[in-house]
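INFO  loader      accepted 1 record
INFO  loader      residues=250
INFO  predictor   begin
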Amino acid sequence: MVIRKTLLLLLLSSFAQAEKLEYFDSKIDFWGDKPSSKETPKKESSPTDRQDGKFPWKTFLDPKNKEFFKEGDYTPPEPFMEVARNPTDDNIKQWFELMRKKNELQSKLQERMAEYMAKNGEVNVPTIIPTPAPAPSKAKEQNVTLDTSRFRLRMYFESTCPHCRRMFQVLKKLQDGGFHVEALQVDSGPVPDAEKVVPISRADPSDLKKHGIKGVPFLLIADTKRKALLPAIEGYHGFEEILRLLRAAN
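INFO  predictor   done
INFO  writer      dumping tokens
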């Protein structure tokens, strides 16, 4: 869908989160995905419920309804749906102003996080990689021994995301290099065979809220030595960029 692809190109990367979690040998406990003991709430009626046994096509065919844009459990932000429904000059102007303010706030947050990490002796890793960093000299890289068993990488993706398709090739190279890699799908669309190069499974909807996932691709890297997640990486980033981040954490 053209609208969907446009969304993936326009959505701003959300603030990355560094999280503390307990590490156990099992895959589920390592990522902090502990099963909930709460009872399943009763389902309330919604505009998408069948009426008189018929599928509510009118609800899905009307751009005024959120269901028109929704894919699986993911609903785009309200501002995007507004500018997609009414791409007036004013709405487009407001959209770019929203992006500018978010970028400005994000930059301030990154500066403060860097100050905090430097003051408290934390690993000085950027929260999000905004642009490719200058490549270090080959001599310096050769002196850094990267422990591939120390890190585990998990990417959240959607079947219609073009940037996710590119990231799968990056994940394949990391996997070939000895890293533990997996991909979790956040929608229900078919996955092309060309992307089935790493283990793929369905993401738990609660993960989207837990990790603040508002756009894809969304990459989490777990450091088993420090028993913590590195700051999240959003959007497409190349193989060398990911390696530089891992070397910095290593």
